[in-house]
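Supplementary Methods. Inverse-folding protocol.

Structures were first reduced to a discrete structure-token string of length 270. This string, shown here, constituted the complete conditioning input.
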């Protein structure tokens, strides 16, 4: 199976690295990249074929993965449309609906849309996937194989649910960084050095996430187990609840969901 990546940015690089580690051969992967500097970096890093010409790269490809910026996808799709010959097209361009991608490709319907997140760069990501109606079960399995090279995957039956995926996991790393930032600042205010505050905050998140992912109990139960009555944790949680922290986090995620819908609607007018 030959895969062509159109766009050689960070996410494409992460996917290529993951696929190579999973046993794909460099000769099965190729990249279209307009930047000469990036072409050299990709060749040196992975030993894959990297070219500037779109037509030569998609010839004999089984899968074409669109990894350009959303603002570039419309123009790319117009160039790509006459070159398609029954390949599976996977898009990881944020915010652009499969229906619009298919329209820009002149009605080409063998399309899967994916929404990976930034932890994919360290092979710890999660990607939401949606298959257009004409994508086959084989297409779905191939999309799974590619995206699972950098983390876990989940399918949604309705494309609009990718807005929720974006709001939770796509934007989610920034929420976590924001909380880590707050913990680090508090640690420094309490007298820790920046290095100490960073180590404690990061390892606490890593450990708590590992504990939650390996437990059969939900987050509410896990939180209750580490919250002793009258203790320090209870006092901290009470302070958060007094300030409606949970409600504000939920409201922020709803705001991200609405913005994802707005951005998709904007691209739909093109």
């Amino acid at each position: 199976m030959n895969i062509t990546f159109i766009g050689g940015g960070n996410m494409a690089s992460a996917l290529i690295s993951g696929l190579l580690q999973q046993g794909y051969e460099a000769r099965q992967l190729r990249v279209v990249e307009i930047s000469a500097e990036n072409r050299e970096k990709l060749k040196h890093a992975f030993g894959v074929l990297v070219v500037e010409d779109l037509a030569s790269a998609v010839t004999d490809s089984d899968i074409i993965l669109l990894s350009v910026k959303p603002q570039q996808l419309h123009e790319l799709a117009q160039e790509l449309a006459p070159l398609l010959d029954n390949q599976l097209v996977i898009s990881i361009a944020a915010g652009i609906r499969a229906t619009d991608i298919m329209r820009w490709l002149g009605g080409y319907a063998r399309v899967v849309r994916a929404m990976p997140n930034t932890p994919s760069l360290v092979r710890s990501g999660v990607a939401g996937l949606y298959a257009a109606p004409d994508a086959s079960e084989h297409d779905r399995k191939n999309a799974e194989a590619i995206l699972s090279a950098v983390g876990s995957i989940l399918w949604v039956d309705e494309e609009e649910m990718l807005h929720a995926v974006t709001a939770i996991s796509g934007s989610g790393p920034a929420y976590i960084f924001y909380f880590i930032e707050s913990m680090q600042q508090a640690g420094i205010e309490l007298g820790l050095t920046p290095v100490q505050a960073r180590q404690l905050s990061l390892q606490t998140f890593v450990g708590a996430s590992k504990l939650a992912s390996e437990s059969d109990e939900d987050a509410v139960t896990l939180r209750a187990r580490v919250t002793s009555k009258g203790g320090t944790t209870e006092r901290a949680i009470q302070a958060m609840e007094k300030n409606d922290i949970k409600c504000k986090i939920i409201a922020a995620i709803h705001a991200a969901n609405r913005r994802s819908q707005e951005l998709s609607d904007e691209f739909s007018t093109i």
